């Protein structure tokens, strides 16, 4: 016997029983059931349509936020990249390392603002396509390169403070270039497993965030190659920064220092606190992504503590470099010049471009 309350089901029963006659009042009851069924279906369809419209609107809002913040990150980090290429106040080693993590910041901002956001805005379904899923893979690459660059920055600052007379022999041009090359190659190797469809780190339009897949490969990669690796890097950076801070505190007790030594100490301390602020920013983002966001069920709160925090930290990383260095703040992209002389010790050089004279101090570190 058929118990479903749909017209097609009742028709099927009636068609198979041609000689069956309707009992008294059955037709009216059947019509009432049909009306109720249609009303429920209409209400459900209307509710689903409203939910879909709300989701589409929210998706567009999140895409515009990503595009805006990512665009700001592009401009900030591009300014730092252009300044680092022209200015010599950072020295070769520290300047190259800063360039490395700034390029990684630029890459993250570019993927979010020029790839993830436009797809979310115009063709959300493409996030499930194999090419669309590559966004997460590229973001992991730039994230790893950025974190490793910050680790190298912490090592550089620690060596400068503990071995100021040997730093030129430790961080030579060759050592610096080879180390950075290995850093980027390692970052690329880490994301090779993501080429497999079994290892996913894709964008979910329902929560506006990137999530690892549920497969064994995704869980292993996400847990060990991403989470524990990031935790290990942040702990290493924090430990090196702590040692450097202790050394700075010890140096402050030294009274016999020449003017040049004091200038160099102030400069190295400034670079240390720059690196410290950048490390704290990345540590905060890591805690936000892997812990704080799980305390919320609201998709907008999840978005704020994951995707938004991810984009923002790479923009802040560039802003910190600008905030700690006047020569970068006053750098003019159009003229390619700075109106300030370098504050570092070393060989002073003067560059002239048009009517603007720029004093640049070269420091080997």
TrEMBL record:
Which residue ranges does UniProt annotate as crossing the membrane?
63-84, 105-123, 135-163, 175-195, 227-250, 271-294, 300-324
Q: Does the keyword NADP apply?
A: no
Q: Any keyword Lyase?
A: no
Family annotation (InterPro entries): 7TM_GPCR_serpentine_rcpt_Srx
Q: What is the lineage of its organism?
A: Eukaryota, Metazoa, Ecdysozoa, Nematoda, Chromadorea
> Keywords, A to Z?
Membrane, Transmembrane, Transmembrane helix
Q: Which Pfam families match?
A: 7TM_GPCR_Srx (PF10328)
Specify the 7TM GPCR serpentine receptor class x (Srx) domain's residue ranges: 69-325
* Signal peptide stretch: none
| Protein name stated in the entry | 7TM GPCR serpentine receptor class x (Srx) domain-containing protein
